[in-house]
Amino acid sequence: MTPVHDRTAWLKGGEAVCVQPPMKVERTWRLVLLGPPGVGKGTQADLLHHALGACQLSTGDVFRAARGQPAAAGSAMAEAQSQMERGELVRDETVLTLVAERTRCLHCGGGFMLDGFPRTRAQAVALDQLMVSHGIGLDAVVNYELPEDEVVSRISGRRICSSCKSVFHVATHPPEAEGTCDHCGGLLMQRADDRPDAVRVRLEAYHEATEPLAEYYRAEGLLVTVNAHGHPDEVFAQTLNLLARRVLKA
Ligand code: AMP
Questions:
Q1: pLDDT grade, residue 1 (50/70/90)?
Q2: Ligand 1: which atom is nearest the Cα of residue 91?
Q3: Does the structure show a pLDDT above 70 at 196?
Q4: How close are the terminal C-alpha atoms of the chain, in Å?
Q5: Is 245 annotated as catalytic?
Q6: pTM score, two decimals?
Q7: Of 14, 65, 181, 191, which residue has the fewest beta carbons closer than 10 angstroms?
Q8: What is the distance between the alpha carbons of residues 49 and 58, in angstroms, rounded to a whole number?
C-alpha cells in the first residue's frame, strides 16, 4: 500500500503548509467518511486519495499529532488527549475549534474526505453551516457498515507505523518483518485507544452519537452505504462504483 500523503496543513494547522499538496484534479470530491472505529476508513481514505486526489482530513489524526506537544494543564487539548486515551468523544466545542482553524483545507485543490468528523449531530449541523458559509457543498457521505464482531477483531489486530502512519493488521495485512513497517522501516505500535477497555467506550460512543448521522445524511440525500466486509480493494471498488453512479444520476 502506498504511504500516506502529505497533510501537514491539516495536522499542524496555523501557518503550516503542505510540502506536496495534492494536484488540482478535474473533479473535486468533497466527502465525509462515516462508520464505526476500525471499519477501515483510514485504509479507504488512502486508496481514495490516490484515485480521486481528495485529501484525508482526520480529526483523530490531529489529536494524535498533538500528543507529546506541550499542552497547558486544564487546556482543551490536554482534556482532549485524556478523553481520547479513554476512548471517549472529545467535546464538540474543542473539535469545532480545531476544524475552524483548518478551514482552508476545505478549499484544497484536490478536494477532501473528512474522516472521524462529524461524530455528533451538533458537529454535523456545524459542518453544514461551515460549508454554506464557504460556498461549498458535500458530494456524498460514505457510510461503511460492518458487523460488530468483525469491527472488534479488526481493531484489536490493528498496528500503525509510528513514523509514516501506514496501517497493518497482525492477521489480515501483516508486515513482512514483524513489528516493522514495510514502507519506511518504522516501529509498528498498537494505538492506546485500540486496547479492549477503550474500544468498548468508543463503540458505545459510536452507537449513541455517530450512528444516527446516517439518517441525518440520508435525509439530505447524501448517503452512500458501503458493505465494508471483504478485502480493502473490494470495498474500495464498491465505493468508487457507488460514487460514480451518483455522478451519473446528478
Ligand atoms: P479516530 O482516529 O477517528 O478513531 O479518533 C480517535 C479519537 O479522537 C476518538 O476516539 C475521540 O476521542 C477523538 N475524536 C476524533 N474525532 C472526533 C470528533 N469528531 N468528535 C469527538 N471526538 C473525536
A1: very low
A2: 21
A3: yes
A4: 32
A5: no
A6: 0.91
A7: 14
A8: 13
Catalytic pick among 119, 154, 159, 165: 119
pLDDT single digits (tens) 70-110 = 776 778 888 999 999 999 999 999 999 999 999 999 998 88
Pairwise CA distance, residues 8 & 104, whole Å:
12
> Can 7 be counted among the known catalytic residues?
no
Residues 6+ apart with CB under 8 A from 208: none
Locus of grid cell 471499519: 39
158 labelled catalytic: yes
Q: What percent of the chain has pLDDT over 70?
A: 98
Task: Return the closest-CA partner of residue 75 out of 45, 44, 57, 98.
Answer: 98
Active-site residue flag, 191: yes
**138: CB partners within 8 A, 6+ apart:** 30, 31, 32, 131, 222
CB 125 within 8 A of CB 216: no
CA distance to 54, 181, 189, per residue, from 169 (Å): 25, 11, 11
30, 41, 64, 102: which one is catalytic? 41
**Centroid of ligand 1 to alpha carbon of 80 (angstroms):** 9
Report the C-alpha gap between 204 and 33 in whole angstroms. 19
| Rg of the chain on CA atoms, in Å | 17
- Residues lining ligand 1, CB < 6 A? 37, 58-60, 63, 83-84, 87-90, 95, 116-117, 119, 123, 193, 202
